[in-house]
Amino acid sequence: MSRADLGTLLDTLIRDIPDFPKPGVVFKDITPLLADHDGLTAVVEALADAGRDADGNVVVDKVVGMEARGFILAAPVALALGAGFVPVRKAGKLPGPTHAVAYSLEYGEAILEMHRDAIAEGERVLMIDDVLATGGTMAATAELVAQCGGTVTASAVLLELTFLAGRDAVGDLPLTALKVI
């Protein structure tokens, strides 16, 4: 599917929910996309491309998904790439020893955690999330990967909200956005 066709599909299957979770925030609801087999398949394939080189070879060992909608997208991307999946969760949700990073997001602050043994020294990582807003979640997750000894080689998101300047927070991290708003 071409990028233009994918963009049109995303326009159709992602809806705006105003004032959620708090006044002034426009939430991007991806549940219609998740319910559409063809749409979800196209998105997973497009996100997985960020974990391949120009010849189509897989160049990552792990795919990291951020809580919670990033999990939904990252797990099938990991399967498509033949890579392992690693969840990044909010504080207190993982049972084993973790690394933790505090960060700011569009409408508050949070702490993310990753199991200390989730990524081995030198493993190459693709980070996946649904939306790049302020970039806080992506930057915090990259820090967690580094704390484990891994290297973020790429990141990909379904949507990038440019008015929140999230790319500034992630610096020179290679980032693919399927749709830029």
Compact description:
With 181 residues, this protein is of the alpha/beta class.
Care to describe what's here?
- The chain starts with a helix and ends with a strand.
- Helix content is 33%, strand content 34%.
- The model has no long low-confidence stretch (mean pLDDT 95).
- By secondary structure, the chain is an alpha/beta fold.
- The chain has six helices and nine strands, in the order H-E-E-H-H-E-H-E-E-E-E-H-E-H-E.
- The longest helix is centred in the middle third of the chain and has 13 residues.
- The chain has a seven-stranded mixed sheet, sandwiched between helices. A two-stranded antiparallel ribbon has the order 1-2.
- The chain has one domain: Rossmann fold (3-Layer(aba) Sandwich).
**Which percent bin holds the helix content?**
25-40%
Largest sheet: 7 strands, mixed
Integer tally of domains:
1
SSE order: HEEHHEHEEEEHEHE
- Count of extended strands: 9
Mean of the pLDDT scores?
95
CATH class label: Alpha Beta
Shape: globular
Radius of gyration: 15 Å
Within the CATH hierarchy, at the fold level, what is the topology?
Answer: Rossmann fold
Strand content: 25-35%
- Unreliable residue runs: none
Question: What is the CATH-assigned architecture?
Answer: 3-Layer(aba) Sandwich
- Separation, N- and C-terminal Cα atoms: 20 Å
Class based on secondary structure composition and strand pairing: alpha/beta
- Please list the strands of the largest sheet in the order they lie side by side: 5-6-4-3-7-8-9
Q: Count up the helices.
A: 6
